Each structure stands twice: as C-alpha cells, then as structure tokens.
Amino acid sequence: VQLQAFGGGLVQPGGSLRLSCAASGNIFSIKISGWYRQAPGKQRELVAVINSGGTGYADSVKGRFTIAKDNAKNTMYLQMNSLKPEDTAVYYCTVVTNIGEWFWGKGTQVTVSS
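Above: the chain sequence. Below: its structure as tokens.
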C-alpha cells in the first residue's frame, strides 16, 4: 500500500485545515486507517483512527478534529477545526492491513501560529 498525504500548511490559531491521504496499491487489504502526529522533541502520537466499526480520537483533539474516508476515491481525510498552537506537528497518515502490516505516508507539516 502506498500513501500520499496532502493539505498541510500555516494557519492562524482558531483556523481550519483539511488533510487528505490518498491510498493506492492493495487497498482492499486495509483494515484500519489513521493519522498520527509528531511535534518537535516529542514522540509520535495517535490523533485519530477509523475502521468499519467507527472512529476514535485522542482526547486532545476530540470535538475539533474529524476523520473520514471516501472509499470511492481511496482517500482519507482529517478535518481540523479550532486549531491551536499545540497542534503544530508533522502529520502522518497510516494504515494497517488485514495481516497486521503497517504502511506510512510521508508527513505533512501543520503549523498553527499568528
């Protein structure tokens, strides 16, 4: 599975961004999709996940971020609203296949600053 993320950038506090992650290859093997982020000097952390059973979010983004998938376009999204400076990080999309393989896209930088 190959993943390509889009949509990062610079936004002011309180603003919004939408990240996209396009998947190609053996997409039918994907069981779980998600977004992680890594801020400077910090460990990579889970932001949101989605599978056939629903969605899940880190406490820090609940109510502000929404993860979604468009299966017809093989694309996953992360809508980020009410952004805060502490959301600044490199965001990575990832999938886990039905045999437990992990695949990662290249990160996309999100900077929240006035």
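The longest strand covers residues 30-38.
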